[in-house]
Design brief:
This protein is α+β, with helices and mostly antiparallel strands. It is globular, with a radius of gyration of 16 Å. The protein has two domains: 42 residues, Arc Repressor Mutant, subunit A (Orthogonal Bundle), CATH 1.10.10.10; 75 residues, Lrp/AsnC effector binding domain/regulation of amino acid metabolism (RAM) domain (Alpha-Beta Plaits).
């Protein structure tokens, strides 16, 4: 799976009903190429299906955390694409100060969260990280 596939998957995660034309424009490639990539990803098993997410399903994950990342070099764009391709990542934010990126993560269990954190820490260019569990939310923009 190359960088273009990762970007395509990220776009499909955001809107699986996006038209081939919209995906092609967003990726800077032809509709035929996008269609071929989707078919190849489905045939290989990288994409196993599409689904509907209901408001109640997305309202709250049982285990939530914020992961702050320090990134070495100029890998921020690549790392953001990798992060946004992960199903447990709810949002990514660039920031100033000690940390370069803050990642909102939601999972069903602590074990799943631990696996996601370990996966992210293995990304090339991650220099340091710190994670905080979210215990309660008093006000949300949703």
């Amino acid at each position: 799976m190359d960088d273009a596939d990762q970007r395509l998957i990220s776009m499909l995660r955001h809107d699986a009903r996006a038209s081939l034309s919209d995906l092609a424009i967003g990726l800077g490639m032809s509709r035929t190429t996008v269609r071929s990539r989707i078919e190849r990803l489905r045939a290989s098993g990288a994409i196993v299906g599409f689904t509907v997410v209901l408001r109640g399903d997305a309202a709250r994950d049982p285990v939530r955390g914020l992961m702050m990342l320090g990134i070495e070099g100029r890998g921020t764009d690549r790392i953001l694409r990798q992060l946004n391709g992960l199903s447990a990542v709810r949002a990514t934010h660039t920031t100033n100060g000690r940390w370069d990126v803050i990642v909102e993560i939601g999972t069903e269990t602590l074990e799943e969260l631990d696996k996601v954190l370990a996966q992210i820490r293995r990304f090339e260019g991650i220099a340091q990280s710190e994670t905080s569990l979210l215990l309660n939310t008093w006000k949300s923009g949703a």
